[in-house]
Amino acid sequence: MAAEDHPADRETPTRRLREQSQLDFELEFLGRVLERDPYHVAALRVHANNLATRGQSARALQMDRRLVRLQPDRPIPWYNLACSYAVLGMIDPAFAALQRSIDLGYHWLDHMARDPDLKSLRRDPRFARLLRRVLSAD
Predict the structure, then answer these.
(1) How many Å apart are CA 9 and CA 22, to the nearest integer?
(2) pTM of the model
(3) Any idea where the domains of the chain sit in the sequence?
(4) Shortest CA distance to 83 belongs to which of 119, 50, 47, 109?
């Protein structure tokens, strides 16, 4: 029997699963869930985060856009959309989404001020003005 024919060397679903990272597993699994149900909000949220973690920012943006359409009155999807836009260098849409998240009640300003995804916005004077406006409203 040739080495590649040995049962222990064959690619099996179980073996492949063991060798996958948790992130790879979730990306594959949630991708399949979303193929069946493209409006599954919890799966979309985690999948978008995983795509962003993997550096697949354009795909994460697609998921975040879908989440905003499904949950237009929730601040977190808008905040995540702002992050996706900012990572991709889409500054004006990022500010618009960030403002919308604040209008809907996003109030974790400490996180916003340190979030690495928003790094590209911090150099823009609109970011400081946005923070001051939110702080003065409290």
Answers:
(1) 22
(2) 0.80
(3) 1-56, 73-138
(4) 119
In the numeric block, the tokens 């009155």 are attached to 73
Q: Is the model's pLDDT at 121 over the cut of 50? A: yes
**Is the Cα torsion angle 92, 42, 102, 73 positive or negative in sign?**
positive
DSSP three-state, residue 44? helix
Instruction: Please list, residue by residue across 27-42, b when 16 or more beta carbons sit within 10 angstroms of its beta carbon and e when fewer do.
Output: bebbeebbeeeeeeee
In 3D space, the residue among 77, 82, 84, 116 whose CA is nearest the CA of residue 96 turns out to be 82
Supply the pLDDT for residue 2.
47
* Distance set, CA 108 to CA 8, 21, 75 (Å): 51, 31, 11
